[in-house]
Write a structure and sequence with these properties.
Helix content is 37%, strand content 11%. With 219 residues, the chain is an alpha/beta fold. Helix 2 links the parallel strand 2 and strand 3. Its EC number is 6.3.4.20.
């Protein structure tokens, strides 16, 4: 059976990608990264729950050196997570995170002979992170395949979808969205104010759907 390595944060987008891979006939291998992010425990919990639902093999890798690099509010508690809207890339951007993840994913995919690597990046309705663009992914696929024996295609089925489209597609596929997490700040009750919460709530609102996870009461 063909295999797909799915980079899974425990969030809505990467979870949808894993469901899509399974629908397309792949045996799913879920890959999760810990990098000392604020909501690490919650993300890990969601990852394992979704993989259990999908019957996916799980691979968990610690990349705590990302926190040592710093420069972002996900790993540096001295920085405040942005709660206001702006056209600037927020300080939740973790420098070259997807480049690091894809490099490691390439090795894991070769280990398990996965012909596809799924990553839930989106450039149409996101925070403007530079490592979430189609151009970046195309270049990443080239460099990781140049350095390996076993070749893989990097698949980004959500790249041009809005958050509303993502919610609609997830609901159509029966994705257990109640077991996904998007909040950058809290791991028990979502703050509802960070970029990731705002984008998630916007997607559910535009899709005329109800998000089942708990949010803090917004003033």
């Amino acid at each position: 059976m063909k295999k797909a390595l799915c980079i899974m944060s425990g969030g809505m987008d990467s979870t949808l990608c894993a469901y899509m891979a399974k629908k397309e006939g792949y045996e799913v291998v879920g890959l999760h990264f810990n990098y000392s992010q604020r909501t690490q425990d919650k993300e890990k919990e969601c990852f394992y729950k979704i993989c259990e639902i999908l019957g996916a093999k799980t691979v968990e890798i610690d990349t705590n050196f990302i926190a040592q690099i710093g420069g972002n509010s996900l790993t540096d508690r001295d920085l405040e997570i942005r709660k206001t809207m702006s056209d600037e890339v927020p300080n939740t951007y973790v420098p070259f995170r997807n480049g690091i993840f894809l490099s490691i994913a390439a090795a894991v995919a070769e280990r398990y002979e996965c012909e596809a690597i799924y990553i839930g990046v989106t450039q149409a309705d996101g925070s403007g992170y530079p490592d979430c663009t189609a151009e970046f992914i195309k270049a990443a696929q080239k460099f990781i395949n140049l350095g390996r024996v076993y070749q893989s295609t990097v698949k980004t089925p959500l790249i041009n979808l809005s958050k509303a489209d993502i919610v609609k597609e997830a609901l159509n596929l029966g994705v257990a969205l109640e077991y996904t997490w998007s909040c950058y700040e809290n791991g028990v009750v979502a703050c509802g104010k960070c970029d990731s919460c705002r984008l998630r709530l916007k997607g559910f609102s535009k899709a005329n759907a109800v998000d089942k996870i708990a949010y803090a009461k917004l003033s």
